[in-house]
Amino acid sequence: MKALDDEIGRQLARAMAAGQLRTGAGKPTVVDEAWLQTPPGLRMAFQIMKSAGVPPAEVELFRWRASLRASLAAADDEATRLRLQRQLAELEQDIAFRLEALRRLGQG
User: Fold this and answer.
1) What's the pTM value of the predicted model, to 2 decimals?
2) Are 98 and 68 in contact (CB under 8 A)?
3) Which residues are in coiled coils (predicted)?
4) Cβ contacts of residue 72 below 8 Å, gap of 6+?
């Protein structure tokens, strides 16, 4: 068993020297409010996506919703306001459906 441990140590040293290991990799996940609100069945997948710098599609929908709200607040004419309100209502419904589907998927 000592020989195996020594070989693992040599492999790790080579990987570190070659820059193949990241500093801080393998540290435990920080438990924050977002982690606690994520359904347990989706936490690992979302953590992997976060680590890879790829946010879930719902994050982009939240950004789009914020943009629509800002546009609605700045709208001058009634036709534009009605169009933006319609878009915002449809988007909020889409977000609600997606979040409910994720909640169910994460619990099942």
Assistant:
1) 0.58
2) no
3) 72-101
4) 81, 84, 85, 88
